[in-house]
Amino acid sequence: MNKIIILLLSTTYLLFAATDAQIEKYLSLSTAEEQLLQLQSEFSAMQNSFSNKEENTPYDMQLLSIRFKEYIKRHLSESEMDEVLQNYRNVAYLQFADASLETFDANQTQHYLKSLQDDEEAQSRMRLLEAINKTLYKKEFIGVMFDELIKPLMQNGIGGQKIDKKMMQLQKEAYVKAMIKKSEEWNIYMLREFSLEDLEALLKVVKTPSAQLETKTVYAATAYALKAFFLSMASRYDVGKHQTKPAQ
Q1: Is the dihedral of CA 99, 103, 104, 107 positive or negative?
Q2: 67-117, pLDDT tens digit by residue?
Q3: What residues does 17 pair with on adjacent strands?
Q4: Neighbours of 239 (CB within 10 A)
Q5: Is 77 helix (H, G, I), strand (E, B) or coil?
Q6: Is 238 in a helix, a strand, or coil?
Q7: How far is CA 222 from CA 37, 40, 83, 216, 231, in A?
Q8: How many Cα neighbours within 13 Å face the side chain of 14?
Q9: Cα gap 212→225, rounded to integer Å
């Protein structure tokens, strides 16, 4: 009986999971895989900053894309992926995906944000941007990144046994707050060339259930893809040197 149940569940998965063709099309439109590779590059630099080169074992980065695709396939059905792909027929949403590949520049971002403060006509723009940000960067989405990546890294790192449950929660809150702030500020700068009409069109798409599901799934898929990579660095990660100080 158990074998029959397993077979039925496996068949159901094969019938309803997103197809390989859908996933490849999604990756070509969304730039999600490129963003994953950008993260990999950033984290590799972080790894080099605290790793002992003599102990450093190269991690097979090809696994990141494989795991990312695997997660997407397991968690988005064929019909759900159809709806996600439909969103990319919207020009504003497609342009948003392309813009997300722009290299982050903290100085330029802050300079642009200050210029908006002195612009009375920017109020309408900021209202739209704030609505877009509120929809894209939710605590529960970014919290997954902490739970699946940062928390295991800290727990398995040097000195990780000293972090109790309360301190870990404070670390999570500080991490999520900082990531949301950085993401929102970057998004405002990234969309600087979008007209009010473009922003209105983008907001309409990101608020749809399919776009919300996509965002949630991509965060989780990214965490799944990177988890083994993070754990591979844990033995060389000194918690005391990299621990975030929670705001008082």
Answers
A1: negative
A2: 999 999 999 999 999 999 999 999 999 999 999 988 888 999 999 999 998
A3: 77
A4: 19
A5: strand
A6: strand
A7: 10, 10, 21, 10, 14
A8: 6
A9: 20
